[in-house]
C-alpha cells in the first residue's frame, strides 16, 4: 500500500501518523516544504521517501511530486494531510490522480459553513442559524433578521481566525473596514453556552470505530480576543443525548474512513446546537 502524507512534519503532533503507517508495513511517502535534514530522526526513518517542494501553495509543484511517486512506486492508494488548511488541495490531488477519498465535488459540505448548516437542518439537527453574505448591504440586512449579537467569520475558514463578535452597529462598521477583500463571510446567531465536541474516526463503511469529546474552558474566539491561554480536556464520559446527536451528525455527513471533529454548544437550559464540522483529527493546537 502506498500512502502519501502531505506535510508530515507540521503540525508536530501529526508526525505519529507517518510513524504508525510505517510500523504497519505501509510504504509511507512524504511531501513537504521543510528540508529533509530538518525532519526529526523518527520521521526520516518512517518515510520511505520524502519529496521537498519550495512552496506547498504551488499546485504544479505538488502535482509533480505526486506524479513522481506514482511513477516510481505505482498506484497511490491514499493521500492525506490531516490538516484542514490543505483539504481543498488534498481533494484536487485525489481527483487528478483518482485516489480514494474526498474529491473536488464533495468538498462543499465539509468546508463551507453555509453548506454545513444545510446538511444539519436537512437531518433535523438543531443549529446556530446563519447565512453567507458578500456585501455590506447584505450584511446589514442579515443583522435586521438576526439582531445582536452575532458571529461573523469566513464561510470557509480555519479555527477562530478572521472571526468577529458583532454586538452593535459600530462593531459591524469596524468589521467592514477590517474584512479580508473578496472573501465570502458567514453570519450566524450568537449562542451562549459551553462548547463541546464529538470527535472520532470512521471506517470505510462509515462505522464509528472510536469516539471521544473535548470540553473547552471557553470558545476559541474568546481566547483569541483576550490573547490569553486556554485549556481543554478529553473525555469519553459522554451524555446519552450528546452521543445520539453526535452519531446522527456523522451519519448525516456520510463520513467514511476519516477523522471527524464536530463542534456543538450546550446551553444553560441543556439544549444542544450544532456549530460546524471539521474533517480532521481533533486537538490540533494550530487550528482551535
From TrEMBL:
Signal sequence span per UniProt?
none
Protein name stated in the entry: Cyanophycin synthetase, cphA
Q: What organism is the protein native to? A: Ligilactobacillus animalis
Q: Which Pfam families match?
A: ATP-grasp_4 (PF13535)
Keyword annotations from UniProtKB, A to Z: ATP-binding, Ligase, Nucleotide-binding
- Residue ranges occupied by any ATP-grasp domain in the UniProt entry: 117-281
Q: Which Gene3D superfamilies match?
A: 3.40.50.20, ATP-grasp fold, A domain, ATP-grasp fold, B domain
Respond yes or no to whether keyword ATP-binding is given for this record: yes
Q: PANTHER family in the record, alphabetically?
A: ATP-GRASP ENZYME FSQD (PTHR43585:SF2), FUMIPYRROLE BIOSYNTHESIS PROTEIN C (PTHR43585)
Q: Which InterPro entries match?
A: ATP-dep_AA_Ligase, ATP-grasp, ATP_grasp_subdomain_1
Amino acid at each position: 500500500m502506498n500512502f502519501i502524507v502531505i506535510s508530515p512534519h507540521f503540525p508536530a503532533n501529526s508526525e505519529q501518523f507517518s510513524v504508525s503507517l510505517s510500523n504497519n508495513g505501509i510504504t509511507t511517502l512524504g511531501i513537504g516544504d521543510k528540508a529533509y535534514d530538518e525532519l526529526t530522526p523518527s520521521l526520516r526513518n518512517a518515510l520511505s521517501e520524502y519529496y521537498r517542494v519550495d512552496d506547498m501553495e504551488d499546485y504544479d509543484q505538488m502535482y509533480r511530486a505526486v506524479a513522481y511517486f506514482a511513477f516510481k512506486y505505482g498506484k497511490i492508494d491514499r493521500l492525506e494531510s490531516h490538516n484542514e488548511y490543505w483539504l481543498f488541495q488534498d481533494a484536487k490531488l485525489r481527483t487528478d490522480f483518482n485516489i480514494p477519498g474526498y474529491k473536488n465535488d464533495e468538498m462543499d459540505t465539509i468546508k463551507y459553513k453555509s453548506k454545513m448548516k444545510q446538511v444539519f437542518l436537512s437531518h433535523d439537527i438543531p443549529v446556530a442559524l446563519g447565512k453567507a453574505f458578500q456585501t455590506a448591504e447584505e450584511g446589514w440586512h442579515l443583522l435586521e433578521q438576526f439582531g445582536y449579537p452575532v458571529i461573523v467569520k469566513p464561510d470557509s475558514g480555519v479555527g477562530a481566525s478572521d472571526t468577529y463578535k458583532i454586538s452593535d452597529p459600530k462593531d459591524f462598521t469596524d468589521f467592514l473596514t477590517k474584512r479580508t477583500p473578496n472573501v465570502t463571510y458567514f453570519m450566524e446567531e450568537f449562542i451562549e453556552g459551553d462548547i463541546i465536541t464529538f470527535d472520532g474516526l470512521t471506517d470505510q463503511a462509515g462505522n464509528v470505530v472510536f469516539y471521544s469529546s473535548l470540553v473547552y474552558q471557553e470558545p476559541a474566539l474568546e481566547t483569541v480576543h483576550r490573547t490569553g491561554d486556554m485549556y481543554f480536556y478529553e473525555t469519553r464520559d459522554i451524555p446519552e443525548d450528546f452521543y445520539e446527536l453526535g452519531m446522527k451528525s456523522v451519519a448525516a455527513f456520510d463520513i467514511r474512513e476519516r477523522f471527524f471533529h464536530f463542534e456543538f454548544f450546550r446551553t444553560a437550559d441543556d439544549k444542544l446546537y450544532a456549530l460546524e464540522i471539521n474533517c480532521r483529527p481533533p486537538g490540533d493546537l494550530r487550528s482551535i
